[in-house]
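Z., the sequence and structure:
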Amino acid sequence: MISCMGTGINMFGVSHKTVFVVDHCPYMAESSRQQVECDILTKSRAQGMIPLAPISKSLWTCAVECSMEYCRILYDVYPSGKLVNYIVSDSEFHGLNSWRQEDQSTQELMTSLAGIGPPNPQEDPECCSILHGLVAAVESLCSITEYQHEARKAMMETADRVANRGRIICLTNAKSDTHVRMLEDCVLETIQEQNKLAAGSDRLMPIQQCELVLVHVYPQGDDILVSDRAKKEISNVLISEVHSVRAGRHLASKLNMLVQHHFDLASTTITNIPMKEEQHANTSANYDVELLHHRDAHMEFFKSGDLHMAGSTSRDSGLKETVTLKWCTPRTNSVELHYCTGAYRISPVDVNSRPSSCLTNFLLNGRSVLLEQPRKSGSKVISHMLSCHGGEIFLHVLNSTRSTLEDPPSISEGCGGRVTDYRIKDFGEFMRENRLTPFPESSGRDSSGKFPSDRSKGQLERHTRYWPMIISQTTIFNMQAVVPLANLIVKESLTEEDVLTCQKTVYNLVDMERKNDPLPISTVGSRGKGPKRDEQYRIMWNELETLVKAHVNTSEGHQRVLECISACRSKPAEEEERKKRGRKREDKEEKAEKNGKEDDKSWQDSERLKPVEKEEAPESEIIKDSPDSPEPLNKKPRLTEEVPVPEKAKGPVSLLSMWTSRITAVNSRKHQEFAGRISSVNNKAELYQHLKDENGMDTHENGKATR
């Protein structure tokens, strides 16, 4: 069933509506000239009995049989959602069914066709035309189906976005290429007129796109009056293609290929099917059965590049491709389970043949058949399985990367490499919370107007908006304190009590941060002990905010929870300023302590090196620098502000002098130098420097004044 949940114009494709228009004019009663043998019992026929003469079907019979096979395959693979409207055209059009799902069956169509009967060769050809059926087909495409109506109801404000596309398949006997162009022009004009009428109507929908497939059917032996033509865009709403096909088995092959192309089907041939012979019960022979199904059943072949196993069968036209799978002796029943990646309905190509009938009856009795890929060497690879469910046969796609007989692969060998910290227990709990149960279809919608399947999909979508798969990639899902909030935030709506519980959880996290409690932060891939405590809580708050933001648009309660988290994360300005001042003070103390240690070390080094300088100094310098000897008045002070490093007139500078000068320069930059030290002589400050200027007194080194 086509889901009504969707947006845009791609909701309904061209394959949603298919209109068959079959010509019922007198010329369709002409023989197809393909001989059909009725007397097949050649050996058991008695002598003297005249065999039955072969017969040939009419063009009408060939067209009806092939179109019914088209519909049968479609209904087998798509029991719902793909609709067919069958129209017969002669002097007027005859609609055999409608777009309702109840009318979509080959039994309904065959009953209506029996009432129509074969074409009347005596009828006036001038009164009959295929145009009546084509005009009725365009009008039928403008009608709204049940699926389109449900989609329009679900999208009341944007109902115009529901697309209306369709396909018209016309089986007729055209006269020439000019006749074909006239039919295309008629269809285009009718679409334009119907779109104008549908623009102002609530019961009709304008056609956005229409595909016209004209199949020219002619008897065998006649000249080809109509040439084939690939798809051609007639206008922005009409695309046309033309096929010229001989009646009989060629027409059947053509429609078989068209149904595969129109509905994205593929072919699989089951080979080496052992069956007992009817006439010789003790012997058996191997048969082949061709099945049609959705193309996705061969998706693994496309991914793995095993398309070399796909062979082509030369049935009739020789243009058909099929994938060959080998029958395995059935050693299983429906009780055993297999790892399937997909299941697709099947439809036999030759449904009335004995091999197809035997295979379908075998499967309908509850047996399952494994299918393997044919290989010239190596172990066999079982890729598919045929099994029946509820009276319908499905082709199951098995995981062919590993044999079904082997042990399941370890979780450490997944897509992410050898990852061993998957949240396995949490995933088991997740599966239990989202487990599906059977629900009676008759119950319909609930009080909120939703189907149970829609509610289940919505719940699954909410639970997976943010769900880390690996333990080392999350923090909050490893914390027991966050469990109440994580369980409530995925709900569709939060009550007042739920909001209070979530807010209480947030306050508990704030209390944990104030107490400086440790968090379960993973240290995988990081050096040392991992991030600091402040960084851990920053990571935790960011992840918690990401989780709540994923659900903030669900209800008003979710918005209140996010506001609570934002309020708790934002610190007051005074507290932030206090934290900054505390950090600066700590940095200063640490720096001062470090500088103090360096100064002590330098002082110890200088004291340790002083005796060495004393011993190595010359005797003259020792007498000159002694405290008992007077210092000359014209001697330059040893410590000056501009030149802190003592220099000698001649000779190299000792290592001690260089180190002392460096320490002096460093200390001078830390504080303002004492004025008396700058003008001191021999580490003694001179007193009464301005006495001479004021009293006219002269001073000398002993501090006594003279006139």
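The mean pLDDT is 78. The CA atoms of residues 55 and 87 lie 28 Å apart.

Let me know what you think.
H.
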